[in-house]
Sequence to fold (663 residues):
Amino acid sequence: MVREAHIQPLNTVARAGRFGPYGGRYVPETLMAALEELEAAYESAKQDQEFQNEFERLLRQYAGRPTPLFHAARLTENLGGARIYLKREDLLHTGAHKINNCIGQGLLARRMNKKRVIAETGAGQHGVASATVCALFGFECVVYMGSEDMRRQELNVFRMRLLGAEVRPVNSGSCTLKDAINEAMRDWVTNVRTTHYLLGSVLGAHPYPVMVRDFHRCIGREARQQILEQAGRLPNAVIACVGGGSNAMGVFYEFLPDKQVKLIGVEAGGRGSDLGEHAARFRGGSPGVLQGSYSYVLQNDAGQIATTHSVSAGLDYPSIGPEHAALHDSGRAEYVAASDAEALEACVTLARTEGIVPALESAHAVAECIRRAPGMKKDEIVVVNISGRGDKDMGILTRELKL
Amino acid sequence: MIAFEHKPGLVAYLTCGDPDLATTHAVALAAIDAGADVIELGIPFSDPVADGPVIQRASERALHSGTSLRQCIALGADLRKARPKAGLIIFSYLNPVLRIGVSSFAQQLASAKIDGALIIDLTIEEAGEYIETMRAHGLAAVFLAAPTSTDGRLKAIAERSRGFTYAVSRTGITGEQQQIAADAAQLVTRVRQFSSLPVAVGFGISNAEQFQAVGEFADAAVIGSAIVAIMEKHGRNSAEPVANFIRGLRVGKSVAQAER
Fold:
């Protein structure tokens, strides 16, 4: 097991890009200039009303925001406890929340005059959203994807190709999301002068965790306003799945000051509690540096990164966004895990009670809702972020469910 | 100690534990005897984002044989006893170092009489405590300078580096290339504005022609993937072919190329 006594952060100086001790910028020197350029471009875009207007316009007219908040009456009734509301990010263009961040970073790439975009993808949703935005803006697009994930999510591979992107298989390590990020970083370090790396989660070196979160803040901003309109008060709990953690940060962020609202992140419990059988970083992980950021990491005693497992490719990753690490340590958010089996069952339950098939990632959040809601009072409220839709998972569902 | 006695100097990178530590030991001694001034003891890591396919594969083999940072430091101590004057540097990603802890890492290096370390994903901004700890133990912290580094960054890198400054020949990952980019010579000139430390150029230098070309403008060249590729081919019997390759660099004969 992990020997906690040896773990110490290198540097806890508070500055931009740090969440408590977590975050930072741990990359080869070659990338530093690009990260500084990106940070400057992002800071100036934040102040630029024209940029913000264009971002808002595309979210509205292209992506389909705002997404509805839907009262899941039958699921509520069946569980017999808290009133359940679903934030319908699954209804967005391309089928998941990922498009929010891709539009934002696409506009930034245009602002930095970079016409080649690279991205990594796990479940393929970020890859599809990247390919989509590149088509919209006329960028060249290369998506790195683990060969195992390509097999699991072949429909999305075809969608990316249809959209004009080149999908490059990654055959190193566990052939999943982590390895795709390694390969994207290698591409970026080589082509850094002409290429923007469209990182798809609240991971990596500063400014990515802050920037990606900000591009997803609309999720929580809408949900907070919608629940106030529909229920007349704030929810008792907000639940979201956490791979890297972008949909969770997006929906949590606006609720952070509302201390009475519990924020619950659901990690992939996989098929067991041994290292390698799950992707629950807060159950068996410890602080370390992976792919640019200091956060909780599943690793062995020698600091080698562990392999992970989850039925959902989008949660199958050994580290977690650094802001989640800080929210975990401060206790502001609570992190739990749902197993493969629980997620699959939750997927079926939501499909049959509400006619909504969630992505297997989002089904982890639904699973936690199913566990938690019956123990809550009927006048309590839970908001579940349905970060994506399950169309991409039909192959896996066909194999796993044998209906 | 880090001193480039030969002109140009040669830094030889080895992935420790590929295929096992005994081989690394034998190859390191052979490389020193053949004229390497500094040995970089590469610590295998599961996610080597700065490395090309050759070193990625070597890292996988080394991890497969169970190689850890502690064992590599012990290997350094053995090499020091055998070759008191050779330069010995640990070349690692940050996470294995963090597991040991920065101060314990520095203590272990000092007691092994290793000269210093280069941590490839630790930039100067994040390295405050590391630099202080290394200095307190009399160890050299080597940092990378890249063609994309601004003058401000190069100045800070040059000021903080000890032993030598490692100039990355081009934007990219480790691995062989056809030509040494004009980037490299420019970068060495820029680094020298800020520091009188020796400058070693690395990434992509794989044959005698390139080695001697780099010698025209830099103090030393780092050769990594070309050596690791020879070891991939010869496995446990790599000492002699690596030594021949290194001697060939100096006489202008490129054994690595001839072998392929």
